[in-house]
Amino acid sequence: MSNPEGLRALEEQRLGPVLRRREQMQPTTTDQRLLDTEGDSQWVHTDPWRVMRIQSEFVEGFGALAELPSAISVFGSARTPVGTPEYEIGVRLGRALVGAGFAVITGGGPGAMEAANRGAREAKGISVGLGIELPFEQGINPHVDIGVNFRYFFVRKTMFVKYAQGFVVLPGGLGTLDELFEALTLVQTRKVTRFPIVLFGTGYWSGLVDWLRDTVVAQGKASERDLLLFHVTDDVEEAVALVTKETGR
User: What is the model's pTM?
Assistant: First the structure.
């Protein structure tokens, strides 16, 4: 006796919401392919999989930082030696920011970042470190209470801005400059509002400020008012007062 339903099963295949018939049918099921450990592993290096990793980094970052109180991101060189005057300024700055009611966010590394985290921890405030996966990175410093390590710079930079009310920028190298100009661009283009940016160390930053004024602005590549997007100081208390005033606290 014939079995029309059995014949139909040979000619039709349902894979989730997808219907396949005749030569478009697949020899295995979705579960079978998922559980097949002998399959090709190249998929973990494809762009669609990277998109999922990027998404997971945003989710982890948002989840870890969503309940932070008002915070200030502090940037600076990983090469600042412990015990130097520059390092001690970072410690004092971390303490003073906590005293003003802020959590302190850094890149989580050594040097100036460690100094600011140390000051925040010693003042019994919230010390946050947002690390980055690098071939030469030394890991999250021991003074961080909440640490998140990222694969992607652009995800990490989003967290620095989204969960901070301002930046204080200590002397630093290319990474510090990258973070500084990212912030300046976001404020200039009004992607963020009421976002104070303080450059600490007039001796270190004066050459950059002169170049911006005498070359970039002078040649019409930026506006004179763009020089008002940041402040320069050598005083910890003034730096804290500037971010406090501009954030409306």
Answer: 0.82
**141-144 long-range contacts, CB within 8 A, separation 24+:** 141/108, 141/109, 141/110, 141/113, 141/114, 141/117, 143/114, 143/117, 143/118, 144/106, 144/108, 144/117
The answer to whether 90 and 116 have CB atoms below 8 angstroms apart is yes
Question: Residue 81 and residue 136: Cα distance in Å, rounded?
Answer: 17
Q: Quick check: 6 pLDDT over 50?
A: no
Least-confidence region, from 85-99, 113-127, 131-145, 154-168: 131-145
Enter the tokens of residue 65: 């930082």
Separation of alpha carbons 170 and 90, rounded Å: 8
Q: Determine contact, residues 183/233, Cβ cutoff 8 Å.
A: no
CA distance 95 to 104: 9
